[in-house]
From TrEMBL:
Name of this protein: dTTP/UTP pyrophosphatase
Catalyzed reaction equations: dTTP + H2O = dTMP + diphosphate + H(+); UTP + H2O = UMP + diphosphate + H(+)
Compartments, as annotated in UniProt: Cytoplasm
This protein's UniProt keywords: Cytoplasm, Hydrolase, Nucleotide metabolism
GO MF assignments: dTTP diphosphatase activity; UTP diphosphatase activity
Enzyme Commission number(s): 3.6.1.9
Cofactor(s) needed for function: a divalent metal cation
Entries under HAMAP family matching the protein: Maf
Organism: Maribacter orientalis
InterPro entries named among the record's database cross-references: ITPase-like_fam (IPR029001), Maf-like (IPR003697)
Family note: Belongs to the Maf family. YhdE subfamily.
Pfam (any one): Maf
Any one GO cellular component localisation term in the record: cytoplasm
Length: 195
């Protein structure tokens, strides 16, 4: 079991996301949360997975020269990619409404990049899930935003919340990736790192 193999390692999850922290608990992994503030700015020429790869590495760079031999630092970033545009976190109700109207009745990609950093190496992997919303009514969009205030989520929605339950028609790929962490990818990568 991975938990046993990680006994001599210190897994550091650099994420304040309660969803990512919960996934680590549910995977039965011992970990500590360590947070650093990073300005999430990326070069404008980057597209899709290039953005989340870059930001996951950027978050890891804040811990440079701090990692001990036994440490495995995990940083990640999620991007919602639609019609050649990245839909980041909405700042307010208006931005959230604009984003959800763009996604309504359409397919989009949810891309999560995960960066595994030790004192000796760095691995960056990403997972891409295709998600299709039904045609959402203005009333459904407004109800969701007012009740759930999804301003901490890329694309202004959480698939595990009300709008996911009533609005997602189809999904191709990892469900946990859309929630914010491709758990199977993380588990398998950690397993290979400590073999």
């Amino acid at each position: 079991m991975l938990k046993e193999k990680l006994r001599n390692h210190n897994v550091i999850l650099a994420s304040g996301s309660p969803r990512r922290q919960q996934f680590f608990k549910e995977m039965e992994l011992d970990f500590e949360v360590r947070l650093k503030s990073v300005e999430e700015v990326y070069p404008s020429k980057l597209k899709a997975a290039e953005i989340s790869d870059y930001l996951a590495k950027l978050k890891a760079s804040a811990f440079k020269n701090e990692l001990e031999t036994k440490d495995i630092l995990i940083t990640s970033d999620t991007v919602v990619w639609h019609n050649n545009e990245s839909l980041a976190k909405a700042a307010n109700n208006t931005e959230a409404e604009v984003m959800l109207k763009k996604l309504s009745g359409e397919w989009h990609q949810v891309i999560t990049s995960v960066c595994f950093t030790t004192s000796e190496r760095q691995i960056v992997l990403n997972s891409i899930t295709e998600v299709k919303f039904k045609d959402l009514t203005d009333e459904e969009i407004r109800f969701y935003i007012e009740k759930f205030t999804p301003f901490d989520k890329a694309g202004a929605y959480g698939i595990q919340e009300w709008i996911g339950l009533i609005g997602i028609e189809e999904i191709k790929g990892s469900y946990t990736n859309v929630v914010g962490l491709p758990t199977q990818l993380v588990y398998d990568t950690l397993t290979k790192m400590v073999e």
